[in-house]
Amino acid sequence: MNYKPPKTDSSTIEAHSALSIPSIPLVELNFQKFLEMKKIEKNKDKKDKDKKQENEERIYRANS
Question: What are the start and end residues of every segment in region (Disordered) (predicted)?
Fold first, then answer.
């Protein structure tokens, strides 16, 4: 019994390879977006922290 691989035309091969291996620019773009989101998140955390501290100072001054 001889093994015969399934027949595929070139379009199937191209589609498969395009799906299985992301292009480098796409990976870089996703990474860039990830870094941007982390930066935004970090800034938001800092703003929240500053606002909380400001409120605590305001309450402290009001109680003094």
Answer: 39-64
